[in-house]
Amino acid sequence: CWLLLAVAERRFRHRHSQRHPRGLLAVRMGRNADTITRLYTAFAQLDDAGMRACYAANASFQDEVFTLSGQEEVAGMWRMLCEVTRERGLPHWRLEFRDVKTDEEEQEDGNSSGSGGRTGSAHWEAHYLFSSTGRMVHNIIEAAFTFDEAGLILTHRDTFDFWAWSRQALGPTGWLLGWTAFLQGKVQAQAASNLQRSMAKHSGAAKPAAEASAIEGEAD
Length: 220
Prior knowledge:
Blueprint: H1 2-19, E1 27-28, H2 31-44, H3 48-52, E2 55-62, E3 67-69, H4 71-88, E4 94-102, E5 104-107, E6 112-114, E7 119-130, E8 135-147, E9 153-159, H5 162-170, H6 172-177, H7 181-219
Parallel strand pairs: 2-9
Antiparallel strand pairs: 1-5, 2-3, 4-7, 5-6, 7-8, 8-9
Helix pairs in contact: 4-7
């Protein structure tokens, strides 16, 4: 009896493996989930160019500090943060991410199922030195995304506890005022000013290169 059951089970598994080599629902990572993974893998490596490539031209970003519109601004923010970290806090930098989720499901044959796969989310944590005060920060963030048809990020919303962040980054000031709109507004204004300076610096650096290329073209 046991021998017959074992033979029957073996035959069933053989037929099942031929029909479904990787299982009944062989699910692989979809395009949008891959974009999220590429975004945070690039950030962990402080690769701002790799991060830029994950956003659509008309992308927008918002968190407790920044409100940005267009790929140039969003990519400019990541470039600024990556540069500051590379220059002043590289030994302290660490990024971890997990729980990458999207509403897309791609099966083995490549056909999408579900409602169209336009939203996603992830959990990420950054450990870094806040250069303005020299204090260590461990920020815990929940990210929500929408995507365009090409799998690029259209909207990116990060949410974190601003008071918890300010207590770490700003010390006593954060403890006393981190829960107020006043301090958050001050931090937002300073961050916006820093970003404008950073983007102007890179814009100014790009202009001589463009002019030099034009001159070389004329000389040819």
